[in-house]
């Protein structure tokens, strides 16, 4: 009787997989359905709302639109939104670089805890974050009596907007850098140090060129998040007209005042900022992809030559 080994040897080899065999999801009907579903979702969830915003904003004419944008409270809201981005984005830039460097280049107790803490704003509601800052720095909060004795007010001021905006946006730069820096390793940096480069020169000439696109990508995401933040800012700002209203809060106040045209005009300016951010993001992705392809193309030309 033939044993299992002889049976295995006598067994005919498996038929090779045909290269023309369709994979799951490659049928023409399913492919057409998925493409139509994606296009329909994009159209109804993104294009139509944007179209409504700009249609309603210009419904009363350009003169009325310009007048709505140039109202003192709306201009101040735009100014405060841009100011918040100018303050928060650079701070998060340096924090993200420092956090990514510490996590990817050093081994120390609590590294996983640090990474978890950085990612905490992803899982915490912005409203909860605002309430937390209110309970911490408010007049009746944990630090409120001490701040009151020093005649320092944090809540319902512009610095409070900066604080909560820093909290909700702190993960973006770090999380853009950490996977890339882990994949790249530290070999080039160690080589630069062994050749006598200082830490600052090593960062400028070795590290920064390697992470520049991921860094810029994180900055763009941070800027978009700052300008569109509503929940946390609404809790700590006090919604003081002409003082602590950012653009998202101003849009809500205009709607509550039944000033629909003004609300849509303000919303259109926020939508323009979002579109500019999206265009910048696409440009960064394409430039990064082009830079990655360039060495490969040069290498293939050298091999063929």
Shape estimate: globular
- Largest sheet report: none
CATH class category label of the largest domain: Mainly Alpha
**What's the Cα radius of gyration?**
27 Å
Uncertain segments of ≥5 residues (pLDDT<50)? none
The count of domains is 2
At the fold tier of CATH, the topology name of the largest domain is: MetI-like fold
CATH architectural category of the largest domain: Orthogonal Bundle
The structural class is mainly alpha
Short overview:
The chain is an all-alpha fold and 305 residues long. The chain has 14 helices and no strands. It has two domains: 27-57; 61-293, MetI-like (MetI-like fold, Orthogonal Bundle).
What does this structure look like?
This protein is mostly helical. The chain has 14 helices and no strands. The chain has helices spanning 4-10, 28-57, 62-69, 72-105, 111-123, 126-137, 144-149, 158-169, 171-184, 187-194, 199-228, 231-237, 247-256, 260-304.
Strand-helix topology:
Layout: H1 4-10, H2 28-57, H3 62-69, H4 72-105, H5 111-123, H6 126-137, H7 144-149, H8 158-169, H9 171-184, H10 187-194, H11 199-228, H12 231-237, H13 247-256, H14 260-304
Characteristic key phrases:
mainly alpha; about 300 residues; about 75% helix; single chain; 2 domains; MetI-like fold; 14 helices; globular
């Amino acid at each position: 009787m033939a044993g299992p080994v002889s049976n295995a040897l006598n067994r005919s080899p498996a038929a090779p997989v045909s290269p023309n065999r369709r994979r799951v999801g490659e049928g023409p009907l399913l492919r057409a359905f998925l493409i139509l579903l994606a296009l329909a979702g994009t159209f109804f969830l993104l294009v139509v709302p944007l179209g409504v915003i700009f249609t309603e904003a210009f419904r009363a004419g350009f003169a009325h639109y310009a007048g709505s944008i140039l109202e003192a409270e709306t201009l101040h809201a735009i100014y405060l939104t841009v100011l918040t981005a100018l303050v928060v984005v650079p701070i998060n830039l340096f924090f993200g670089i420092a956090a990514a460097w510490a996590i990817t280049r050093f081994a120390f107790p609590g590294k996983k805890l640090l990474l978890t803490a950085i990612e905490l704003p992803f899982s915490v509601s912005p409203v909860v974050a605002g309430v937390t800052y209110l309970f911490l720095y408010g007049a009746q909060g944990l630090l409120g009596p001490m701040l009151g004795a020093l005649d320092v007010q944090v809540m319902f001021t512009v610095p409070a907007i900066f604080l909560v905006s820093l909290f909700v946006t702190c993960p973006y730069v770090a999380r853009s850098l950490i996977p890339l820096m882990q994949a790249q390793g530290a070999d080039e940096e160690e080589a630069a140090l062994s050749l006598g480069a200082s830490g600052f020169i090593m960062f400028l000439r070795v590290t920064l060129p390697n992470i520049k696109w991921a860094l810029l990508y994180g900055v763009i995401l941070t800027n978009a998040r700052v300008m569109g933040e509503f929940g946390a800012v609404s809790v700590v700002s006090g919604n003081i007209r002409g003082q602590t209203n950012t653009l998202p809060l101003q849009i809500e106040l205009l709607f509550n005042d039944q000033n629909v045209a003004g609300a849509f005009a303000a919303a259109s300016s926020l939508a323009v900022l979002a579109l500019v951010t999206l265009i910048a993001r696409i440009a960064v992705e394409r430039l990064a992809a082009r830079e990655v392809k360039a060495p490969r193309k040069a290498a293939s030309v050298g091999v063929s030559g």
